[in-house]
Design a protein that fits this description.
9% of the residues lie in helices and 34% in strands. By secondary structure, the chain is mainly beta.
């Protein structure tokens, strides 16, 4: 059964009207008017409701949902809001509010918002301004700010905490694409700014883990880490890599700070120590030892140490407590007579200036201990180095052209001094013997 209502001719002023069947309003502008005639200006007053009810299988009548209107505020004005309520199964005759649209048009959802569909879309924009800005807020303090039309100088997606913008993702012609932390217009793909205090990036890893910053030019293998800065938490080493290999290591152990330049032929090309000992055998040391600035170079167990106090001296360690099997040197003159002083010029010297000196492998046949390396030596792969595929320990190292790398010989000229000194002593002894004989002959 239907009730057809055209131009209103009847006013019903009763609390309840029960209609069995449908209600149809036919007019050019059909309306259903609910009038609350209570004179009041309270917030939520002047309310009106449309209640949806249904009967359960047992015949019980239940309230399923409601649409309710009311006054928005406490002033003598016309502001109103609209409230949608649903019953979650335990609300009885008082469904729970789910959505409120207030007098400003602001919609407030009391629970989660779910959008279903094959391609669900949520669109929000302000048509009253040319450059619209849309906010998604929680308690008006935590906000996602969608700024698609460059209203604030850099379009994109901003995230606010406590009402202050903290992060902004942008995509503009002026700035490119990037993430700004503490800055609304990031200048790079990642831009961290804090003009009132410090800017920091924190990396936290396991106590035996590694934290890394990688610089790559590819997506696989060593191309991912052509350059890197890496902190090893297991041994507290900070590593710097170039061309996918360790170049520099900063380390700390037993109150000793180490700066190690790593080379291909040995673990350390140079090591700098603070309050460190001189018991190690690698490369060059710079240390603050006993309140005196010192440096020392170590090669093959021999040490050169420079101490800068009131004066600078170059000292080779020679304490008897470091030595054993001490014997007198002999055959000084014999060895000196076998040495072959030469004149030559260096191939790299374009002026061909002649110098005096020795040839390393010639000296090695007379005084082997003063020569480093072997004649025609080449660089080989050593124990402890990461071997390429198909390479074994002792194999020659090859350059990019497939050629061997020479390992040039060197001479420690300082170690020739004992030989020369012994030769001079032997010569002096011979001279003194001859002088004695000459004096005896002259006395006859």
């Amino acid at each position: 059964m239907s009730k057809y209502i055209g131009t209103p001719v009847v006013s019903l002023s009763v609390d309840t009207v029960d209609v069995s069947g449908d209600i149809t309003a036919t007019d050019s502008t059909p309306e259903l008017i609910l009038l609350n005639d209570t004179h009041e200006d309270t917030d939520g007053g002047r309310e009106g409701k449309i209640t949806f009810k249904g009967e359960q299988s047992g015949g019980e009548v239940t309230v399923l949902a409601q649409i309710q209107s009311g006054h928005d505020g406490t002033s003598d004005d016309e502001k109103g809001d609209l409230i949608f309520k649903t019953n979650d199964g335990s609300d009885g005759a008082s469904p729970t509010e789910r959505l409120r649209i207030d007098s400003t048009g602001k919609s407030t959802f009391k629970d989660d918002v779910g959008i279903e569909g094959a391609t669900p879309t949520l669109q929000m924009y302000d048509t009253s301004v040319t450059n619209n800005v849309t906010d998604i807020s929680y308690d008006e303090q935590y906000t996602i700010d969608i700024d698609p039309n460059n209203a604030r100088g850099s379009s994109g997606l901003a995230i606010k905490l406590d009402g202050t913008e903290k992060y902004r993702f942008i995509d503009t012609a002026a700035h490119g694409s990037g993430l700004g932390i503490g800055i609304a217009a990031p200048l790079r793909q990642l831009h961290i700014s804090n003009t009132s205090a410090n800017s920091e990036i924190a990396f936290t890893a396991a106590t035996n883990g590694v934290s890394s910053i990688l610089f790559g030019d590819g997506q696989t293998g060593a191309d991912v880490y052509r350059g890197y800065v890496q902190y090893n938490h297991a041994d507290d080493n900070l590593l710097f890599g170039i061309a996918a290999a360790n170049l520099l290591s900063l380390n700390s152990a037993s109150n000793t700070f180490g700066l190690d330049f790593i080379t291909a032929s040995s673990p350390y090309g140079m090591r700098v120590r603070a309050n460190g000992s001189f018991s190690h055998q690698e490369g060059l040391y710079l240390a603050n030892h006993a309140n005196t600035l010192k440096w020392k170079a170590n090669m093959d167990g021999s040490t050169t140490q420079v101490a800068a106090a009131s004066a600078t001296a170059f000292n080779a360690t020679s304490d008897y407590r470091l030595k054993e099997n001490i014997e007198d040197l002999t055959d000084g003159i014999t060895k000196v007579k076998q040495l072959q002083p030469r004149k030559f010029n260096w191939i790299s010297d374009k002026t061909n200036t002649l110098e005096d000196g020795f040839i390393a492998h010639e000296v090695a046949t007379v005084v082997p201990s003063v020569v480093k390396g072997s004649k025609d030596g080449v660089v080989v792969w050593l124990e402890g180095e990461e071997l390429p595929d198909g390479v074994s320990l002792g194999d020659n190292k090859l350059d990019d052209g497939g050629n061997t790398t020479p390992e040039y010989q060197g001479i420690d000229y300082g170690k020739l001094v004992p030989v020369l000194t012994k030769a001079l002593q032997e010569a002096i002894a011979k001279i003194e013997t001859l002088e004695t004989k000459v004096a005896a002959l002259e006395g006859e």
